[in-house]
Amino acid sequence: MIFPSSPPGSATGERRTVVVVGAGPAGLTVGNILRDASVDCVVLEAGSRRFIETRPRAGVIEEWAVRALRRRGLAGNLPAAAQVHDACEFRFGGERHRFAYGDLTDHRHHVYPQPLLVTDLVREYADVRGGDIRFGVRDVRLHDLDTDRPAVSYLCPRTGERRVLHCAFVAGCDGARGVTRDAMPADRTRIVRRDDGIGWLALLAEAPPSSDCVLFGIHPRGFAGHMPRGPGVTRYYLQCPPGDDPANWPHDRVWDELRTRLGAAGAPAPTEGRLIEKRVLDMHHYVVEPLDAGRLLLAGDAGHLTAPIAAKGMNLALHDAFLLGDALVAYVTRGDGSGLDGYSQACLRRVWDYQEFSQWLSDIYHGVASGDPFRAATTLARLRRLFTSPTAAAAFAEQYLGSATSF
Ligand code: FAD
Predict the structure, then answer these.
(1) 179 in ligand 1 pocket by Cβ < 6 Å?
(2) Each residue of 140-183: pLDDT tens digit?
């Protein structure tokens, strides 16, 4: 939504250099980078601190992202608490096929639940670096984006009054359901979308993992995934019709399907536990091009959504945030605009690379259950190739780990 006219009370509003909308991994990382360079900023968040620190979502963080977080003093408890994974396992045709990507590439995945990362980033921003963060804001609106003095206004949760923040830049980091994407000018922006026409029942189980690694069950009844999240919590996925009702998936049905779709010779059955999260995600994706319009720059899910097929969304959010934070600091502190000029293009190269890999993986996950015997057979041929061709294995490992350097 664009509110081109100046906000009410605009003469009296506060002045900040950067307003960051959204306190997810993208917004908090941008805020921390700005704060570290003493760039004046404020982060506006619709949820409460408790809400963002407990919302379960991602878990897999790529090695380059961990290195970048550490370099900036933002890794928090991750180095001590993350699990390090060097293999995953495909299960198809009743057999287990372990894929040891660590041996192939010397790179690893880090498993660190998103709420823990967000907790670390909020603590660092607000409690350690003394950053201004306002929780529970309502009805965020963007104004005067076609000028070099935009503004952001919101309803204060305490008083109900509209507050106005004048700024030089707005970082739109408010995720897939935020408002900043809608403020991009329609005549200079396109949003490209794809819908796989597939749903996933996303589950969190209060149960220890049933394997030391991520499992992908490629089964005629549909895809199933197993992702360790910690000693007592495991994420599972079950392919289901798009828009399915989680109520159609009572406890026994979930565990029966998981046992069937993840079943393989010699494999222990999944360890059952209470299901503490159960929701249906539709596998759809979009990309906003470009990610910037004047003084508004989008980062993370606000600018591009990748369904959790390849566990890439949070990694892309972090990649954008590192580039955006650095570019804003360079411009504000040194007058160097090159990072801002190249921001959208630099982000989108990695975004499209990861989208392509997600599409490829989506074909693999869902091909056998497509009902099309030809597609099912070619899917199995692709899978077998990963275990017979070193070249195919190396290419898969590089994309799975996000370790390619030239995007
Ligand atoms: P978000 O995390 O969505 O943060 C946006 C913030 O903005 C939120 O706190 C929201 O409350 C706030 N907000 C929204 N609207 C407004 C508003 N109007 N005003 C102010 N604030 C607002 N990615 C991976 O890389 N690896 C994985 O393993 C992985 N697994 C996933 C599993 C699941 C089940 C899901 C759903 C996603 C997964 N993802 C994964 C994707 C990942 O969670 C997202 O890509 C990531 O959260 C994006 O971060 P973000 O900061 O861009 O947005």
Answers:
(1) yes
(2) 999 999 999 999 999 999 999 999 999 999 999 999 999 999 99
pLDDT, tens only, 247-259: 999 999 999 999 9
Q: Is 31 in the pocket of ligand 1 (CB under 6 A)?
A: no
- Report the DSSP beta bridge partners of residue 239: 200
Fold of 81-112+196-284+369-401: D-Amino Acid Oxidase; Chain A, domain 2 (3.30.9)
Ligand 1 centroid, distance to 213 Cα (angstroms):
24
State CA 247 to chain mean position distance: 26
- First-residue to last-residue Cα distance in the chain: 32
Query: pLDDT confidence of 4, banded at 50, 70, 90?
Result: very low
The CATH class of the 14-55+113-192+286-355 domain is alpha beta
**Could you tell me the distance, in angstroms and rounded to a whole number, from the CA of residue 259 to the centre of ligand 1?**
30
Is the dihedral angle over the CA atoms 361, 365, 370, 373 positive or is it negative? positive
Scan for tokens 């090159």, then name that residue.
Answer: 338
Distance 304 CA to ligand 1 centre (A): 11
Give which of 303, 324, 333, 17 is closest to 148, Cα–Cα. Answer: 17
